[in-house]
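cron nightly-structures :: item 1 of 1
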Amino acid sequence: MAAYLARRVLLMVPTLLGILLVSFTIIQFVPGGPVEQLVNELTHRGAAGEASSGGGSGVAYRGAQGLGPQEVEAIRRLYGFDKPAIERFADMVVRYARFDLGDSYFHHRSVLGLIADKLPVSVSLGVWSFLILYAVSIPLGIRKALQDGSRFDVATSTLILVGYAIPGFVLGLLLLVLFGGGSFWQVFPLRGLTSEGWEQLPWYAQVLDYLWHLVLPITASTVGGFAVMTLLTKNSFLEEIRKQYVLTARAKGLTGRAVLYRHVFRNAMIPLVTGFPAAFIGMFFTGSLLIETTFSLDGLGLLSYQSVLRRDYPVVMGTLYLYTLLGLLAKLLSDLSYVLVDPRIGFESVDR
């Protein structure tokens, strides 16, 4: 096991470096970088200032002249673009190895600080969506497998497939119109995770207020995911129920419940359990841009989108680095959980 883990961890290093190198190379060819954006902003700001102040003084308009070469070079040094690309990439890798993600060009704060500020929104959406998704889909999938072809199976399949066909942001807008005071009922709040004056509320009122704000965004983000997880659970259990060892267990006189929970359940849950780490980390740290925009939530999805538009490369590369690292760790945890759940698989056979 130690040799397997060491080999997997060592393989993460070139994978991570390769992803960073490809992303960094692509960024070099993207037009309208941070230097150009700041130059354009300062030029237009100066043009607007001179035009407004020189209207009645006879001063000639000079806004179109732009910034001089010295000013542009100073901006390039400010952002570190006066160095060769290879040197900048090497400096970035050394800093990332120390988890120093640098400072944002536009927020003028550390990237880690920005991510920490946005995490509560993404964590709230991710964790609750994950828990609700698995808590509903797994029992529903098991019952659908036991009642395969029944009216219950057909009706629930229709409902979850309809939910899967509706995009999350469209459902979010519909929920806002119906229950957010859009045209019908003002039942749930429109924006944010908490209400004004939340700090002054007693602890139980704070919890209720927090959960009340999450009802609509969590509903919009989870409805579309029920279909995949429910049908995966159903098919996994159906495959196990139809195997020979189930018929043998029933022939020995075991009840249906005993067969289900003693034999079928553990084998059928293997593909579901092994996906827990990746799904949990994915929902925990990634944000949904459309859901956050619809419900006015300032999370990681909105931060990443704004950073791409503004060419805020430290934030773009920093979040990419963290997401990639967490994704590789989640994949490793998935493999480890597979070995722990299924005793037929061992690290010795993997090492050979």
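cron nightly-structures :: done
DSSP finds 17 helices and no strands in the chain.
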